[in-house]
Amino acid sequence: MRITKVPMLVAVFAIAAVGCSTDDGALTATAAKPPLAYVRYVNALPDTQNTTVRWIDYLEFTPQSFADVPYRGVGQGLYQGLKAGSRQFRIFNSDAVDFSTAGNTAVLSEQTLTFEANKYYTILFTGYARNGSKKVVLLEDAVPSPGSNIAVRVLNANTGLGSIDAYKTAGVGDAITGSPAFAAVAEQKYSAYITAAPAAFAIRATAAGNAANILASGAAPAGKTGSTSEDPIGGAGVAGTVMTAMVFPASVSGSKAASSTTPTVVYVVDKQPPRTTSP
After folding, report:
1. Which pLDDT score, from 0 to 100, does residue 218 have?
2. Are residue 181 and residue 277 in the same domain, yes or no?
3. CATH of the domain at 86
């Protein structure tokens, strides 16, 4: 199984492998690669367009910045590796119009969080920047292996929607019937994963306990099957895919957040299907 991540640490590791030199030019011993955790960043602030994450404790074994991540966006590279343990970072507003700030110097949050080795995490920046409710929520991602099925869960990504129910339907416009596949998902929380045979589907989110109050609907990406020359791309129709349907509220009117007049469902692949090419 392939967790979706990009090897952003290659350059840093290469530098560490070379090490330092003595006065006569001889190389000193190199530092061993430490245990790593893996993180991704989701911008869930409906009143701020772009945010940037910078790690400020040290450079070695640290991901590149998640730069200019828009509302409802996931940082570049999805999961990136970082040295496990207590780590410090800042989140900046990278849109100069908001808050009348020149450049990307407005610090929206500074955090020190602990990451365990060999675990995967989502850093969710949520709430509202302008009313003081913004906060960072650290979510651990225990990603399953669905075998010949797919696995999907729901993230209620912000405040303001309250708890939600989510229904899994064949199409984005299909009527909601029966019990929700994901019931009473609290704000800033994941549901449990469910598994299903690979097939097109949509998630339709409603207010908890009120199927008539449809908040948002979104069709899952189809994905692409692999071949001996090309690895598969995760999606609803590709066995082995694990994904999260993230439910976001509408953006704030008059803000720089990407326009969305109603709540929105956005999908992110948590784990790619098995490779079909040779390693």
Report:
1. 97
2. yes
3. 2.60.40.1120
pTM to 2 decimal places: 0.86
Asked if residue 152 and residue 270 are part of one domain, the reply reads yes
Please indicate, yes or no, whether residues 242 and 210 belong to a single structural domain of this protein.
yes
195 and 126 share a domain? no
What DSSP assignment string belongs to the chain?
Answer: -EE-B--TTHHHHHHHHH--B-TTS-B-PPPPPPPEEEEEEEE--TT-SEEEEEE-S-STT-PPPEEEEETT-B-TTBBEEEESEEEEEEEEE--STGGG-STT-EEEEEEEEEE-TT-EEEEEEES-TTTT--EEEEEE------TTSEEEEEEE-SSSS-SEEEEEESSTTPPP-SS-SEEEEPTTEE---EEE-S---EEEEEETTEEEEEEEEEEPP--B---SSS--B-STTSTT-EEEEEEEPPPPTTSSSPP-SS-EEEEEEEEEPPP-S--
As a whole number, mean pLDDT of residues 182-190 equals: 97
pLDDT greater than 50 at residue 267: yes
Dump pLDDT digits (tens) for 64-110.
Answer: 779 999 999 999 878 999 999 999 999 998 865 444 444 446 889 99
Which structural domain, as residue segments, surrounds residue 30?
1-142
pLDDT digits 0-9 by tens, 238-251: 999 999 999 999 88
Q: Distance (Å, rounded) from C-alpha 76 to C-alpha 65?
A: 8
Give the total number of structural domains in the chain.
Answer: 2
Q: How many CB atoms lie within 10 A of CB 115?
A: 21
The domain boundary, picked from 116, 142, 168, lies at 142
